[in-house]
Write a structure and sequence with these properties.
Blueprint lengths: L2 E4 L4 H10 L6 E4 L16 H13 L7 E12 L5 E2 L13 H11 L9 E11 L5 E12 L15 E3 L4 E2 L5 H7 L1 H16 L2
Parallel strand pairs: 1-2, 1-3
Antiparallel strand pairs: 3-4, 3-5, 5-6, 6-7, 7-8
Helix pairs in contact: 4-5
């Protein structure tokens, strides 16, 4: 394996991925950098299904040997809201709606809810696919709770409202290196890296 193409157009996510995998001797490209322009319909019912759909669709475009496509599907599950927004996290209130508005809406829906009922987790499924149809999947999670106000500027998405008891702050307030160690995406990517290294892909 000489190159990984990550099936995303999200630059914040690409920055985080490159940081998590910084010590891996591997070229990591976004779809755009790889010259792949593809509309992918994510119609799976789980994070894993959506990650596989994306990875397989991009891998089908490959002609080069030694290239693996990574795709992630990730989101926030809030227990009090029946695990919403879940797999619809990116599309909650509309894909183009700023996360500041999404976060505010969630806080409004959680108004008056006591801390013990505000439990939540970030979930990330990573799928890896090659042009020959090989697929493997890993999952990472981080448990926390929905706070009462947004705080922090180090993260993106729902990070400013997702709090960790053991650190007394939101994931958007964590130093980036620590966040990458603890995060759902960091855990899922690290697990995928180990799996591929074991397979000597």
């Amino acid at each position: 394996m000489k190159k990984v193409i990550f099936a995303t157009g999200n630059q914040d996510k690409m920055g985080e991925i490159r940081s998590i995998l910084a010590d891996w001797d591997m070229e990591i490209q976004s779809m755009k950098e790889a010259g792949i322009d593809l509309e992918i319909v994510e119609d799976g019912s789980t994070f894993e299904e959506n990650a596989v759909i994306k990875a397989a669709a991009v891998a089908a475009q490959l002609s080069e040997e030694g290239v693996v496509v990574f795709a992630d599907d990730s989101g926030l599950e809030i227990d009090y809201l029946n695990k919403e927004p879940g797999i619809y996290s990116a599309r909650y209130l509309g894909e183009d709606t700023p996360y500041k508005i999404k976060n505010q809406k969630i806080l409004e829906r959680m108004e008056g809810v006591p801390k013990e009922m505000r439990t939540a987790r970030f979930v990330c499924a990573i799928a890896a696919a090659d042009k020959n149809g090989g697929i493997c999947v890993t999952r990472g999670t981080i448990e926390g709770y929905v706070g009462w106000e947004p705080s922090g500027a180090n993260g993106f998405g729902y990070d400013p409202i997702f709090y960790l008891d053991e650190y007394g702050c939101s994931t958007a307030e964590l130093p980036p290196d620590l966040k990458n160690q603890l995060s759902h995406r960091g855990k899922a990517l690290s697990a995928m890296r180990r799996k591929l290294e074991e397979l000597s892909v």
